[in-house]
Amino acid sequence: MQKVLESIHLDYAFMFTYKKVNSISMEGFEKFFADLPIDPYMKAKYRSRRLSRFIVSGEELIKQPHGYLLQTKNYNPLAGDIKREFAEIDDRLIVLDNFKKMILAFCDSCKLHPEADIGVHQIRTICSPNNSGNPAPEGIHRDGTDFIGIFAVDRHNIQGGATHLYTAKKEKPVFSKILNPGDLLLVN
Fold first, then answer.
1. CA atoms of 124 and 132, how far apart (whole Å)
2. Inter-residue contact 50 to 87 (CB < 8 Å)
3. Which of 69, 135, 172, 188 has the most other CB atoms within 10 Å of its CB?
4. pLDDT, tens digit, 9 for 90 and up, residues 90-105
5. Closest CA to 162 of 129, 130, 188, 125
6. Domains, the chain
7. Are strands 183-187 and 60-63 parallel, antiparallel or unpaired?
8. What span, in angstroms and rounded, lies between the C-alpha atoms of 70 and 50?
9. What mean pLDDT is reported for the chain?
10. pLDDT tens-place string over residues 69-88
11. Helix (H, G, I), strand (E, B), or coil: what is residue 184?
């Protein structure tokens, strides 16, 4: 009897890619960060946020119906098991050619399936001498998705603000860098 199919167990390694995306101009993005609504699920009011979902069809973005974000407490001990709804990303930002380029660069780099649901979080974190502006108040965590991409749009009057990646909570970071405008960090 000939074996035609067998199951193979693969352990995927933790991987990340950092790159400067020169083909995407930040021009026009800034104004869409000025009026982001405050994240209603955080006690401190230093993080603003919007969320929209897309599917990529060829070279086109197809916006999906409004939905919510749900992570389990295993992934997010502060807001886990809560259906969080955020305002949609402004349609005027979505139609910008550079916004589309950013999403397509993410999809291409991650080799996503054409029908993959892509959640795009537009986040602005404000810091001050009295507030460090921690963008992840839950601390070191996993998001519970197959891939994440962090695309830095701008920095104003910031000292520090490095992004750190860890393989485990008790380990030293495997990546630590200040992301500057146009930097893209991809993580599996």
1. 13
2. yes
3. 69
4. 999 999 999 999 898 8
5. 125
6. 16-187 (2.60.120.620)
7. unpaired
8. 15
9. 81
10. 766 666 665 665 668 788 99
11. strand
**Dihedral angle sign, alpha carbons of residues 13, 51, 162, 101:** positive
Which residue is associated with the tokens 């380990």? 171
Residue whose entry in the numeric block shows the structure tokens 């999906």? 64
Cβ proximity of 106 and 184 under 8 Å:
yes
Q: CA angle at residue 179 from 175 to 180, to 5 degrees?
A: 155
Query: Which residue, 140, 183, 182, is CA-closest to 164?
Result: 140
Q: Which of 114-136 are b and which e, b meaning 16 or more Cβ less than 10 Å from the residue's Cβ?
A: eeeebebebbbbebeeeeeeeee
Amino acid identity of residue 29, one-letter, is F
pTM (two decimals): 0.81
Whole-number pLDDT of residue 5: 43
